[in-house]
Every structure is written in structure tokens, then in C-alpha cells.
Description:
The complex is a heterodimer of chains A (237) and B (290).
Chain A lengths: L7 E12 L2 E12 L3 E5 L6 H9 L6 E6 L2 E2 L5 H7 L1 E4 L11 H8 L4 H10 L16 H13 L5 E5 L7 H14 L4 E5 L3 H7 L2 E6 L2 E7 H5 L2 H8 L4
Parallel strand pairs in A: 3-8, 3-9, 6-7, 7-8
Antiparallel strand pairs in A: 1-2, 1-4, 4-5, 9-10
Helix pairs in contact in A: 3-5
Chain B lengths: L2 H32 L6 H19 L2 H24 L7 H23 L15 E3 L4 E3 H23 L1 H11 L1 H6 L4 H23 L9 H16 L4 H22 L3 H15 L12
Antiparallel strand pairs in B: 1-2
Amino acid sequence: MRRPDPPDLLRLENVHGYYGDSHIIQGLSLAVGEGTVVSIMGRNGVGKTTALRCITGLLRPREGRVIFDGRDIAGLPPHAIARLGIALVPEDRRIFGSLTVEENLLLAAGGRRSAVGEALDFFPPLRDYLRRPGDRLSGGEQQMLAIARALVARPRLVAIDEPLEGLAPVVAERIQAILESLRGRLTVLVVEQNLRWLLRVADRHYVLNQGRTVFEGTSAELAANPGVIDRFLGVSV
Amino acid sequence: MSWGAVADQLVIGLSAGAIFVLVSLGLTMIFGMLNVLNFTHGVLYMVGAYLGYVLAGATGSFWLALVGAPLLVAGLGLLVERIGIRPVADRPHLIQFLATYGLTLVIEQLVRVVWGNGAYSVPRPAVFAGTVWLGFMELPRYRLFLVVAAAGACGALGWLLARTRWGAVIRATAEDPEMAALLRVDTRRVSSAVFAGGAGLAAFGGVLAAPEFSVNPSMGDEILVIAFLVVIVGGLGSLRGAILSALIIAQASSLGLLLVERFSDVLTFSLMAMVLMLRPVGLFGRREGR
């Protein structure tokens, strides 16, 4: 028997997002169930990152609703949204280069050292360079720190933008393992190009084209739909 | 020209440099943080000196004035940031110049209305009357105090920025405000606090300068030109750059008086123009203003 769907923690309803006059997100609707892993896919420039910016408050949607935990958060400033429990691991990681690894984590933890300690238990390699400035980390180390920094504040939902981009295969595997260990512990919304990996780890998928959803479904449904994969993702499984 | 005269000028340069440092640090921090060219910085320094004069007169204590005036001006800074800076924060620098310069004129005229166009003097605290013998020259005690106070303020600021959680929040917000906001930092409040802190530092400089120079309505304009020169030569947003360039500029101007007398300013500005030709982003600058 199929388990009932978990209640939605996050829901986008007909969201429109613009950069200046460019209409990037054109009526996007999606739902992320509590405790699930949901992916957003699509070719470059279809609005995946912009969707995450609308959710986290970096871009104010011109139309539509962003419902988080039953409350419309569209238009709230980013720090207020973050305080409600949404964290973002941005595409380019955006580690503070002038802050040490420890300072990056402490800042994210709101100064609570105990929370930083727990995060380090989860990411033991970070212990080795606590005093190193953020701009002297490798790409993989920065990605690990970016994920740790998002988790240290114990968010309810973490949005992750292209976590594997630009990483060497061995490093990418480590990041994949870390992300997979989050499954079931918190709600994850992930933007990635690695279809094979997403099919394995995500519960639901949204495929975007020109700022709209063109496919929505489970991994089995997406895998059974090579037309969508070929046309909107441009890869073969 | 005797060595005694050179030593005297060096000391004068050092004490003037101490004031330049205090004013410039606030200005460069505000630029680094808010990306705003704050033309009200000079009048905040001036208002600090006036409030210092008033508080010292009313309470009879220079020390109360030295603490109280910067706090009051920090509060004024919050108001200035709210009405003069925030509405133009995302506009081009020319618009910011017009808005903050307009506010400068308003504040300066208000000061003239309240205190008139004349100059006031603030007596030195009795402890700092007289001189100390350094073994090779007499050093006025108050000038020594100026240098120590400025060095203390620099040290405290450095400690705050490098060692405290507040400092980490400020550095993170200056580096990437969007990312800081994503980590639950209310960046607008951080910017306001930095602006108020910068205003307080300028006022601290104003109160310190009051017994050494006179308190008058145009003192803000004079220091503003110097502070912008210091900040640009030091590198916009760089604290170390501001400290170093404030000291160099003060010495160039002070020793210049000895060498070329009334052409001292020409010497100073030429020297600084040369620095900028060789290093357009300033001594410690990493980026040019937008």
C-alpha cells in the first residue's frame, strides 16, 4: 500500500519573477513535501536559480504566492525567510573569503559554538582547517563548508544549487554522499544537472523550460519518459 | 632649518594625523560597507566638536564630553543614514553626492543658526597642560594624548572587527551582503550600526581636535577634503590603508610647511596625485568605486 503523501512544507503558486524587464519565471507552481527530496532540472537559463532566489527572498516575485509552512513568505526580506527555516547553498558557494572556516560556521550558527561542534561532527574534514580563511579552500572544501554552513542553523528546508558543478569526480562523490545522508532528516530542494544521480536520490522532479514546469513526477515516471529527458534536459539516461 | 624645527613639525604632523585617522576610518568603513560616499562625514565631525564644547562647558568635564558627544553624534548618524543615505543607497554615486552634500549644507546652516559664525575654544584638561621632555625635545602633553587616544581607538576597532562575533558579522556583510542575509543577518541594521559607529568615530575626532584647534562651522569642510583624500589614497574601504595614508598625508602637509611654506598643500596634493597615478586603487585598495 502506498504511504500517504507528506504535507507540503513549501509550495509555489503561479510565481512570476523578473530581472528588470526579463520575465524569467513565468507562472511556476511546485510543491515540496516535508522530509522529501525534490529536484528542479532544466537546461541553462530556464529559471532554476531564479526560482531558488524567489523562494529565499533574494528576488521578490512580481506575482504569485510562496507558501512556507502555511504562511505566504513572498516579499519578505531574505534574513526573515532564513529565520523561518529556509537555508540556501548557492551555486557559487559564496564562502566569506575574509572569514575563517570557523567564523563562517559561527556566523551561520548565530554564535552558538555547540551547533558548530555538531556540524563539524558531520563534516570531520573541516576540523583540519578551522582557522584557514575561506578564500584559501579548494572547491570541494568550499562546497562542504557551504553545506555545513547551511545546516548549522538547523533549517527545515535546504535549497541547494548545483552542488556538484565544477568538482572533480572523486570530490563530487563525497559531496553526493553527504547530501544523500541528509535524506529523511530534512527537506531538500536541489537544482542539479546530474540526472542519473537525481533519479536515484530525489523523490520528485520538476523539469523547467522557459520559466514554466513542463514535467512533474517521480523518478520512475521521469525515467519512463525519455521524450522529456531528451527534449528538455538534452541528455540520455 | 634646525632639527628641532623638523622634530616639532613631525609631532604636529603626528597629532594632526591622529585626527585624520579617526575621521577617515569611519568614512572608509562606511564606504566599504554601504558603498556610499558620505559627504555628511565632515559635519558629523564638526557637530561632535560643538557638542564636545557644550558638554565640556555644561559639565566641566572634558572626559564626559569625550564620551558623550560621540554617542550623541552616533545617534544623529542613525538619523542621517535613515533620511539621507538609505533612500539613495542603490543610486549612482553622483546622486549620493547630491543627497549627502545637501544634507551637509542643512546641518552646517543649523549649526550656524544655533552657535553663530564665530569660533569657540575648548580648554585642555588640566592633566594635559604643559609638556613632557622626551630626552631630545619637549612634547606638549595634549598632543601625546591625541596620538595615544587615536591609537587606542584603532586598536579597539581592530579588536572589534577581528576578534568579536560582531566583527565577523560586519566583515561578512561588507564582503557579501546577500549571502549574509541568507544566513539570517539583518544587513540593513548592520549597515546602520556601521554608519552610526563611523559617525561616532568622527565625533570622537572632533572632540579631541577641539582643544587643539578652534571649534568653528567650517571645520567640517576642511576635514572632509582631507578625509576623502586619505580614503582614496589609502584604498576605498581599506582600514589599514586609511591609517597609513592619514599619517603620510599629515606628515607631508606638516613637513611641507617647513620646506615650501604656504605651498604645502600643493606639495601634499601632488604627492597624492602621484600615488594614484602609480596605483589607481590606492595603497591597499582592491577595487575602484562604481
